[in-house]
């Protein structure tokens, strides 16, 4: 089922007030056999999608509400059409049903229920991506972006299936309550040979209210230094001195990093 999304802009003259709909995307959904529920997502197609036969890379962004969708469309449109810094792409915003369940790969002091990250990961790999590939013209290139709790999931996805996506963007994705779990994942990550290049871009704000003592920054510093030593991994941790939780510029800088020539990264 697809539902058109639009923004209405009002134009005012001395005599006429009228509205004009600007279509920026539409909603789609599939029933998930893995999750046993219907999952909705928002789709933004490239401007020339209907006027060509060209396939496009796909950016999958987690926490897909309308506010995040508007922010993502604004950022990608700027980079694609004004800066001409990245290729045109399809944007898929995955809406939440039970965010804590889907994003958490393990139990913590604040999350004591059964973790659902493995099932959510299966949903993305086995159901959502095949649906998108069969419904829209896509290339093989895929990107995954998460923020805050969904950035933890993004890092988890990177460590357990680094070849599933070409690039990962994790905005404010610290893991203070499950550090040992991620250390074990990282140790296992280094035991598996990486045969293809994968990018990961992470961000952290120095005034993040969740990190008053700097513990998350230290975790991310240590994690970034370690994974960048692995073959075929291109990584960067960007620190924002005057920004808080989930810096607004994270997606912008992440996409610019991914599509910069390797020797400039």
TrEMBL record:
GO terms for molecular function: hydrolase activity. It comes from the Bacteria. This is Alpha/beta hydrolase. InterPro entries: AB_hydrolase_fold, Esterase-like, Mycobacterial_A85_antigen. PANTHER family: ENTEROCHELIN ESTERASE-RELATED, FERRI-BACILLIBACTIN ESTERASE BESA. It comes from Draconibacterium halophilum. SUPFAM superfamilies: alpha/beta-Hydrolases. Keywords: Hydrolase.
